[in-house]
Amino acid sequence: MKAINSQISVAPQVKPEDMADFAQQGFRSVICNRPDGEGADQPSFEEIEAAAGKLGMEARYLPIVAGKVGDTDAEEFGRLMESLPKPILAYCRTGTRSATLWSLSQAEKLPLSDILSRTKAAGYDMAGVVRRIANGGRTPTETAEDARFDVVIVGGGAAGISVASSLLSRKSDLEIAIIDPADVHYYQPGWTMVGGGIFEASDTAKTMGSLIPKGVHWIKSAVAAFEPKDNAVVLDGCRVVKYGRLVVCPGLKLDWHKVEGLVDTLGKNGVTSNYRYDMAPYTWHLVQTMKAGRALFTQPPMPIKCAGAPQKAMYLSADHWLKSGTLDKIDIQFMNAGGVLFGVKDYVPALMDYVKRYDAGLNFFHNLVAVDGPGKKAVFEVKEPEKDPRQVEVEFDMMHVTPPQTAPDFIRVSPLADATGWVDVDQSTLRHKTFDNIWSLGDVMNAPNAKTAAAARKQAPVVAENIVSDIAGHSATAQYDGYGSCPLTVERGKIVLAEFGYGGTLLPSFPRWLVDGTKPTRTAWLLKERILPPIYWRAMLRGKEWLAKPEKVSAA
């Protein structure tokens, strides 16, 4: 027996003698979805009904022939779900028909991702009926496909637009579509600078339509599900887009709701975040107006988008307070769910110099779990090695929050995801490990690299090169070395330019005499402030691969 939610569980064939145990567990109704006589060893529904009745349980018979769940069957199951006392136990030979009926009956009541995640957790794969769920629980009457392209790209962020441009620069006759519902494209690396008073928020946003490469089709819709065995992407509303090759790069989900009380207080009560376009200006407002008190800067468990961003906000804020003469009145505390300041040890000494300069407290293994905005209190779960977990309450006057982050729901429940919910790729070629006409890049895939725009800049040419090679009938010709870059803004005017690959290997883009990445430099600041934004808008998104040419696969 597997619980789908608090109202219903599904099970393989049950017996009359099981009813007493089910009643003791609190079940008040039973639905039989297996026709009598399907198997020689199964009890009849009448036997189940009689045993249930003696215990005060309701029983209903909705028999379904294996593999033939009809639309009216799902509707009737939905009516039973509404009318019967709960919780309900539904059963068939294996539980699959019952799980399918529940999924279809809830299609217009729950998000598709919720239905798929609940049934997946119970051990039932609903991939075979995903289009019907997306179509409100009914069998689609439209044609098998609404559109077909050589390459379909899911996601119109930095990774998606870059890979489209890189593909066209290599093979201009490709029919390419980008699927993304957003109207606006953001230069997210600039939000740290907005929160530090260096950039204007408006400088980090452009319309999506102005950035989609010429000749690339823009499908302005959200993805509901993937059908990789049929080379299909199912959109909201059950439209179906077929592909020859698929690139998956929708970014990741900022899970604000995972911190109790955060959504209600974000943007007021001194609670802010540079991870939102509309909040980054509020960060700068708080920094300018704060003259005394305690400032908290949080970092959730990995993985997160740009692991250095939480402390970048701290350094720029502290630098302002230092230069305005108020730092000695402000208690800065960095609350990090992890156990180290930065994951690549070569950069830690320079960062620690600034931690000491700003007299910031480092609190490791502290994960933000709740916020009381009006009360100006934050609750952290502390999980230190070899110690019992505990919770601590910390008062604050200002708090910069980095939200917990996960793969988007439609990715986590898809056949493309690994056990932890990220797209499962070969870390070198970025090709999917199971489906050989699918690639992934950017924040959503599971290669062990830093999730940064700089990483996507290096990944896009690799994916483009390998797709074009695959179209030509050849094996992968380009490989990704795990490159990621994190320009750590340690003060206004200086940056520690962290550049590294898999395993923490240093991968500097410039000679050491020009930029020593392990030390704060003015040159790195000029790169971040003046050079990288135009490179992003005018080169990376247009397929111009400056310092990003893919590394060739070495011969075995």
From TrEMBL:
Gene3D superfamilies attached to this UniProt entry: FAD/NAD(P)-binding domain, Protein tyrosine phosphatase superfamily
Known cofactor(s): FAD
Listed InterPro entries: BLH_phosphatase-like (IPR005939), FAD/NAD-bd_sf (IPR036188), FAD/NAD-binding_dom (IPR023753), Prot-tyrosine_phosphatase-like (IPR029021), Sulphide_quinone_reductase (IPR015904)
GO biological process annotation, one example: sulfide oxidation, using sulfide:quinone oxidoreductase
Annotated SUPFAM superfamilies: FAD/NAD(P)-binding domain
The entry's keywords: FAD, Flavoprotein, Hydrolase, Oxidoreductase, Quinone, Transit peptide
The protein, known as: Beta-lactamase hydrolase-like protein
Broad class of enzyme this protein falls into: hydrolase
Short name of one Pfam family: BLH_phosphatase
Organism (species): Roseibium aggregatum
Keyword Transit peptide: yes
Coiled-coil stretches noted in the UniProt entry, renumbered to this chain: none
Annotated FAD/NAD(P)-binding domain residues: 149-263
